[in-house]
TrEMBL record:
UniProt cross-references to InterPro entries, sorted A to Z: Gfo/Idh/MocA-like_OxRdtase_N (IPR000683), Gfo/Idh/MocA_oxidoreduct (IPR051317), GFO_IDH_MocA-like_dom (IPR055170), NAD(P)-bd_dom_sf (IPR036291)
Domain Gfo/Idh/MocA-like oxidoreductase N-terminal: from-to ranges: 6-123
Gene3D superfamilies in the cross-refs: Dihydrodipicolinate Reductase, domain 2, NAD(P)-binding Rossmann-like Domain
Keyword annotations of the record: Oxidoreductase
Record-given protein name: Unannotated protein
Length: 360
């Protein structure tokens, strides 16, 4: 395309190298001008992946020198998200922040105010909205075949017996580690998208592998304004994960046993703009009850996964004022729910929201 947007990528760990880098590279109209990292191994990887990109040791250096780059992607440690996003917006750049946008609703509101004041766009990488399995649930919900939806079960579970020792497993509050915030940022976002506003929150979060580590096992129960309930589970200590999704209604249910494969493909080095990108071999199982008491079941192919659509939408929002891929108010609502989950987990009490947390 005739217009190209220069991008500064902050961080080249898991988020920068596996997710953001390849997806930006695959998006027409975007180019990576610079990467910020001071890790010797990652510097060599950047040189291989983006030989034309400049490499800087600090965010400040990249912002001051890359004057032709109008977008900053914050893909570094959670503790730096608010600080670096603020610096980038203060320099007049549009910003994409890997989830979580911030550590709390209050911090997210300050970022939103800065974006408004500076006249720039602020986006959050809620890529799981474009998962094949979740898109399948959304499309199936629209048919009404399940009747009144009353329970949603959603899980990110795995077994990692030995902690990796990175910042995600540190218990210090400023690190913003642990599965409640990490997995919860996606699980809560999907629940609000699927079943609507949330009125109260029950949660627990605990550390199994390290007594002084960040939480590695958590559960959040959301009560929605329409009476439905979401059961959200995230764990690093689950050897037998239950189905990725179950959506139950008064007339039937849909179950998806395995999760979307786009992350695995990116980790393996697959090209995200390939023709068959996002096509899954797994299916969704649908079971429907009938008035005569009988049951019928069938398997459906999953919708195509569409992670590359995120950065295409960011590009179009900046160049053509198209809708944001994820409304900022949605992300703020997610953090409001996660704030309540942390309070519930620490007090062992249900938290009632003064007004429902809602995606608008």
């Amino acid at each position: 395309m005739s217009q190209e947007i220069g991008v500064i990528l902050l961080g080249y760990g898991l988020a920068g190298k596996v997710f953001h880098g390849p997806l930006i590279k695959a998006t027409d109209g975007l180019r990576i001008d610079a990467v910020v990292t001071n890790n010797a191994e990652r510097i060599e990887q950047v040189r291989q992946d983006f030989p034309r990109a400049k490499i800087y040791p600090t965010t400040d250096a990249a912002l001051s020198e890359c004057t032709d780059s109008s977008v900053v992607v914050v893909a570094n440690a959670n503790r730096a998200h608010v600080t670096d996003a603020t610096k980038a917006m203060d320099s007049g750049r549009h910003v994409v922040v890997d989830k979580p946008l911030a550590g709390s609703e209050a911090e997210a509101l300050l970022l939103a105010k800065t974006a408004s004041t500076r006249g720039v766009q602020l986006h959050t990488f809620q890529n799981r909205r474009w998962d094949s399995d979740f898109l399948t649930l959304l499309s199936f919900k629209e048919t009404g075949e399940l009747g009144t939806l009353h329970r949603f079960e959603s899980r990110f579970e795995r077994l990692r017996t030995i902690p990796k020792g990175n910042w995600r497993e540190l218990a210090a509050p400023e690190e913003l580690g642990g599965v409640l915030l990490d997995f919860g940022a996606h699980l809560v976002d999907q629940a609000l998208e699927l079943l609507g506003p949330v009125t109260c929150v029950d949660a627990y979060a605990r550390s199994i592998r390290q007594s002084d580590g960040a939480d590695d096992d958590m559960q959040i129960i959301l009560t929605h304004a329409n009476g439905a309930v979401s059961l959200l589970i995230g764990s690093q200590v689950s050897a037998f994960p239950d189905p990725r999704f179950m959506l139950l209604g008064s007339h039937g249910a849909i179950r998806i046993a395995q999760g979307d494969s786009q992350e695995s493909l990116l980790r393996a080095g697959a090209i995200p703009n390939a023709g068959d990108w996002g096509t899954e071999t797994i299916t969704a199982e649908v079971s429907i009850g009938h008035a005569d008491g009988t049951m019928s079941s069938r398997h459906l192919p999953l919708s195509r996964g569409l992670w590359p659509d995120f950065y295409a939408a960011v590009r179009d929002s900046i160049l053509h004022n198209a809708p944001a891929p994820v409304p900022l108010n949605d992300v703020i609502a997610n953090l409001r729910v996660l704030d309540a989950a942390r309070t519930s987990a620490s007090t062992s009490q249900r938290v009632h929201l003064d007004s429902a947390a809602s995606h608008e």
